[in-house]
Amino acid sequence: MGGGPAEARPASPAAGVTPIEVRSRPPKKVATRIVDCDVTSMKAPKQGPMIVRATCPKDAQIHKGHRGYLLDPKTDEPLRDGPVVVTRVKEGQIEGTTTLKRPVKATKLRLHVRR
Known about the structure:
Elements: E1 32-43, E2 50-55, E3 67-71, E4 78-90, E5 93-98, E6 108-114
Antiparallel strand pairs: 1-2, 1-6, 2-5, 3-4, 3-6, 4-5
């Protein structure tokens, strides 16, 4: 009775075939520095996300798409619902959007930028 389904199966790992050992290194951490920007205005449009404008140091090398967060002025801790995504950069002035519905009294915007 040759050619049946029992003969068509591949050999199992227990039958002498050793599995391939895969090792990976942990990912390297990217060197970043913290850049604090001064919030100049927050405007909530009728529709869409709230717009945050801030002034940053000119040597900060901030680009569109960087993410940061608003800081609570009393404790310097990040606001829970205050993440900001940079949408425009022009000569030390940045503009970003956040998920907050109303303006808050935050005066600082903290960004983590690659060195």
